[in-house]
Amino acid sequence: MSALSTTSVKPSDVIPFWTDVVCKTYVRVGCEIDNNSRFRAGVRTVDFGRTRLSRVASTPIRYERTTENIADCGNDDYLIKLLTAGQARIEQHGRSTLIGPGDLCLFDTARPYKLVFPDTYQAVMLKIPRAELDARLPVAEDVAAMRVAADGRYTRLAATMLSSSTDLMGDESTSSPRLGANLIDLIALAFDACFNDLQPNDSRYSKIVVRAQDMIMQNLFNPDFDIASVPKGIGVSSRTLNRAFAQQNIAPAKWMWGKRLEASRSLLETGRADSVSDAAMRCGFNDFSHFSRAFKARFGVNASTVFGR
């Protein structure tokens, strides 16, 4: 746990000091305040594995993350804000959203954004590795700067858990990755309930398919490779992987076995297999009868015929 405050900082040093604190705690941003002598801010943080929870309070301030900041610092985590006092305006993706106490909002640090706090505020922040939230909430990058109302179906539950978890700051025995995972689960649940009709954009699904196909192709001749290992290997859930492949009207396993059949045919046609069973085994088929039927169904010819040519 760490705690930092501007209390003992000279007014002339307030902006560089607080900017440095924010950049190290979250991501690189620029800070603007109107009155150095009256500015007060403080933050307490605790890490649960790779997830960072913090409680921050400040007098009025404006933050901006620019394309230059992003280029200087490649961090692409998500930040979740639970406002507990005051108001905030969040601008990202061409949206401008006002949130109040109890509301949740997400912003994507891989893209520029602005945060404006016109009055003194208090908030709980959760910094989540991108892959961790994407695996639970496929639409995460599409709901940046969109308000999840305090009276949302699961918002109060998530807000209570976030606030309660900050009470554990200072107790090192609670800094467990498992608690971080539970917090992410609740956040995903709150956002999913609010935006359950929103579908991820096609480009995101396309990227998931490409990553999955790359992993499969790298293991095409590995007989121990299991398609069930792909979601974890590329950082998404099984549900998200299936949805992504569904956009192309095929299941991940079917795509993999199709590629393995094509590879086996290539081995047989080019004489790089000692026998039909050798080609089958090398391409991950442990059941020779199943391989023969699948080969005939796919290519309209028996594998033995291809081998004998």
UniProtKB/TrEMBL annotation:
The keyword Transcription applies. The keyword Transcription regulation applies. GO terms for molecular function: DNA-binding transcription factor activity; sequence-specific DNA binding. Residues 210-309 form the HTH araC/xylS-type domain. Keywords: DNA-binding, Transcription, Transcription regulation. This is HTH araC/xylS-type domain-containing protein. It comes from Zhengella mangrovi.
